[in-house]
Write a structure and sequence with these properties.
- Helix content is 44%, strand content 11%.
- The protein is built from four helices and three strands.
- Helix 2 runs antiparallel to helix 3 and helix 3 crosses helix 4.
- It is globular.
Length: 114
């Protein structure tokens, strides 16, 4: 996984070009823009969920936890990315690192209602 603060679209393009030359699976979080996932055979963007942002503390950790949850459950990279985006989005809707994070069922319900 790569965490990088992207200041502009040119930096993002360079990062994606660098990821394309890697032999491993790669993904990175783009905060309000969603996430980008790339493997040897495919690459795609998953848009972020639209929420009112109160506090971004814990958003990255929540995203990673959501992504790993999907992987452990045997979901595809795309489904894991969607779930990760949802967990991260819910995290930022309340003050503090975990206050906005919902249980699995509520997160799935949030995704279906978006």
């Amino acid at each position: 996984m790569i965490y990088a603060k992207i200041e502009n679209s040119e930096q993002e393009k360079r990062l994606i070009d660098e990821l394309k030359t890697s032999k491993d699976k790669n993904w990175y979080r783009r905060l309000e823009a969603g996430c980008y996932i790339r493997t040897k055979n495919e690459e795609f963007n998953i848009p972020a969920y639209k929420v009112e942002v109160i506090d971004t503390t814990g958003a990255g950790d929540s995203f990673v936890g959501g992504f790993l949850t999907g992987m452990v459950k045997g979901w595809s990279l795309r489904e894991s990315g969607k779930f990760a985006n949802a967990v991260g989005a819910l995290c930022v809707t309340a003050l503090g690192a975990t206050t906005g994070v919902k249980c699995f069922g509520e997160t799935i319900k949030f995704m279906k209602n978006q």
